[in-house]
Structures are given as structure tokens and as C-alpha cells.
Specification:
Blueprint: H1 2-12, H2 14-28, E1 36-37, E2 46-47, H3 49-52, E3 55-58, H4 74-79, H5 81-86, E4 91-94, E5 98-99, E6 111-115, H6 122-134, E7 138-141, H7 153-160, H8 172-184, E8 192-193, H9 204-208, H10 216-227, E9 232-233, E10 240-244, E11 251-258, E12 261-268, E13 274-277, E14 284-290, E15 303-306, E16 311-316
Parallel strand pairs: 3-4, 4-7, 8-9
Antiparallel strand pairs: 1-2, 5-6, 10-11, 11-12, 12-16, 13-15, 14-16
């Protein structure tokens, strides 16, 4: 299994390795190239082609059919290299061309070490590389590690394992740490997309909330409150984010600062009432949004009495 993971890592480096060969080839042939930067202090040559090259993305299936079977192939790409070069293209981004049962138009990868039958053979791919080198062209291969066939070796191993990862339970402390990292990892000018459901947990209320009749709506609102106030698409991507109370095992709390206004977001993740003590410097100016029961007592004395699965957004003084 480790060997196969290392194989995938090697594939990820393939485009950079090939581009380096192309750059070296251009120098050996005396061809001037602005995509190569020479370092005079004895260090190796560092290509900047990925900043300056003109890339043309090719979906092989619909690009050029070389044998008349109605399906584009690798030989078809090779036949059009001169045409692409004349257009000013000096790099090709080739979409997945690996062995696949083709349930998802070739994106369901079965083996990264082989070529999908409809596109040709490994010899065809090696010929394409050789012809691109002759023309001082670069290639970027599309390694779609999030798309795998159910026939992929590692997935077949996981499916037969007694320790299937999808059955793993989650802890609020880990959940908060992950969200905190995502909120801060992109710095001041970047952002993420934020979504809780995926292929293995398509019903986020069932996985992160409580889908029993009495809690389904409340836990859904609690999750929505949290999701729509993260520093991420689809909602608020601007403003400072501060994670609060990392040792609190019941409540997920954080602040957002936007246009000079400070807001507190608090989510009770359990089906029991929770008393949440506000940080000493906090006092609530206005309740903007509050789900759950409304008869709880809340004052600015420094405490929020949260009902099961209750969430709230509060403007602070």
C-alpha cells in the first residue's frame, strides 16, 4: 500500500520533472527562453515557465481523433502539436488520461500507471512527450486524487477493511480545531469554501446534528448559523475571526469583526442546556439571530443560558 502511495506522489512530481527536462533541452539547443531563470551562484536552474507559459487545456476525448473511432486520443494530440505551437502555445494541460472503467468520463481513475484504452497506449504517451520536447513545449498532467474508481486498489483495500474510516466518530474539540485552522490558514486576503457534507456524509444534520424529530430543525439551524458565519464562501469571507474557549467541550464560540462591528457567534452542540460564560471583556449590545427556545434568561451579567442545539449571533458593545 505504501508503494502505491509513493507512486501517486511520483506522478504529482512528473509535470515538474518533465518541464525541467524541457527547459534543459532548450538551453542545450541554444534556444533562448524567457521561461528559464539562471542562478549564477552555483545553484541549479530554476524554471519560471509556470508563470509565463501559454497553456492550452486539452480534454483528449473531444480534441482530435486519429483513428476514426469517434474518440479523441493521444496520437491526435501529437498530430496537432505544430498547430498549437503556431498559435503561440508552449504548454499543454492534459486532462485525466489514466486507466479507467470510464463510468465518469475518465475521471474515475483505476490505475495512474496505465493509459485509458480509448486514448491509446503508454507508447503513445511517451511519443507525445518526445515530440513536445522537440518543440520546447511543457506538459502539466491533471492528477485528480479526489476522483477515484471503486476499482482503485487502495479503495478496494479500504472497502474490505474492518476499520472503515467512514464509521469514525467525531469530537467537538477536533471539529473546532479544524474549522479554526481553515479560517486562519489563508491569511488576510484568501478564503476557503466551507461545506460540511460530502459523499460519505451527505446528510450533515444526521452526522453533525441530531435528526430525531424533536431536534432536527433546531440542530439544522445551529449548523446553518455556524456555516454561514465562517470566513469562507458561501457567506462572510471578510472580517477578522477569533476562536474562543478551546477547552469548552460543549460550545463552539467565536467572534467576527466586520466594518468596526464585533459579533459573537455561539452554538450549543448538544441536546442538554448549557450555561456559557462570556469572556470578561464582552457585553451583548443586541441579539441579531437566535434559534431555539426564547424563554431563557439572558443578561449582560456575563452569561448565556443556551437551550439544546441553540445558536445565536450577538452584536457586542
Amino acid at each position: 500500500m505504501l508503494k502505491k502511495r509513493l507512486t501517486l506522489s511520483a506522478i504529482l512530481l512528473a509535470s515538474l520533472t518533465f518541464s525541467g527536462l524541457c527547459s534543459a533541452s532548450s538551453q542545450d539547443n541554444g534556444i533562448e527562453s524567457s521561461s528559464v531563470v539562471a542562478i549564477n551562484d552555483g545553484a541549479s536552474v530554476h524554471p519560471s515557465w509556470w508563470k509565463e507559459a501559454v497553456f492550452y487545456q486539452i480534454y483528449p476525448r473531444s480534441f482530435k481523433d486519429s483513428n476514426g473511432d469517434g474518440i479523441g486520443d493521444l496520437k491526435g494530440i501529437t498530430e496537432k502539436l505544430d498547430y498549437l505551437k503556431d498559435l503561440g502555445v508552449n504548454g499543454i494541460w492534459i486532462n485525466p488520461h489514466y486507466d479507467s472503467p470510464n463510468v465518469d468520463n475518465g475521471y474515475d481513475i483505476r490505475d495512474y500507471r496505465k493509459i485509458i484504452r480509448e486514448y491509446g497506449t503508454m507508447e503513445d504517451f511517451e511519443l507525445l512527450i518526445a515530440e513536445m520536447k522537440k518543440r520546447d513545449m511543457h506538459m502539466m498532467i491533471d492528477v485528480v486524487v479526489n476522483h477515484s474508481s471503486d476499482l482503485f486498489d487502495l479503495i478496494r483495500v479500504d472497502r474490505s477493511s474492518e476499520e472503515r474510516w467512514r464509521k469514525k466518530t467525531w469530537q467537538l474539540s477536533q471539529f473546532r480545531q479544524i474549522n479554526n485552522r481553515l479560517n486562519n490558514m489563508t491569511g488576510e486576503y484568501g478564503w476557503n469554501t466551507f461545506f460540511l457534507n460530502n459523499h460519505d456524509n451527505p446528510r450533515l444534520v444526521s452526522h453533525f446534528g441530531d435528526d430525531r424529530a424533536q431536534w432536527r430543525e433546531l440542530s439544522a439551524k445551529a449548523l446553518a448559523t455556524m456555516a454561514l458565519t465562517q470566513r469562507a464562501t458561501p457567506a462572510l469571507i471578510y472580517g477578522a475571526y477569533q476562536y474562543l474557549d478551546p477547552d469548552n467541550n460543549d460550545v463552539y464560540a467565536y467572534t467576527r469583526i466586520l466594518d468596526g462591528e464585533k459579533y459573537l457567534i455561539v452554538v450549543n452542540f448538544w441536546e442538554q442546556p448549557v450555561s456559557y460564560a462570556l469572556p470578561e471583556s464582552f457585553s451583548i449590545k443586541k441579539t441579531l439571530l437566535e434559534s431555539g427556545m426564547k424563554e431563557q434568561v439572558r443578561t449582560n451579567a456575563g452569561k448565556l443560558e443556551l437551550q439544546p442545539w441553540q445558536s445565536g449571533i450577538y452584536q457586542l458593545n
